[in-house]
Write a structure and sequence with these properties.
Elements (H helix, E strand, L loop, with lengths): L1 H17 L4 H8 L3 H8 L7 H11 L3 H5 L1
Helix pairs in contact: 2-3, 2-4
């Protein structure tokens, strides 16, 4: 399970950086706190499906693309 969290964390950070967004900008777009997003990016949290959907929408990808 730890490996999955780490993979998601790396994918989330890469997508954010590819779009030229800061953590603060992505947090605002997805309606979550900057601190929570930062912890997601280092694999400290297991996001819910609704959180994944918000992040995917903010990054303009599907949930599947976010977690693949």
């Amino acid at each position: 399970m730890k490996a999955l969290k780490k993979l998601l964390a790396m994918r989330l950070k890469r997508l954010r950086e590819e779009r030229g967004l800061t953590q603060e900008q992505l947090a605002k777009r997805s309606g979550m706190s900057h601190g929570y997003l930062a912890r997601l990016e280092i694999g400290m949290h297991d996001p819910s499906l609704s959180t994944l959907a918000k992040l995917a929408r903010a990054l303009r990808v599907t949930v599947a693309e976010l977690v693949e």
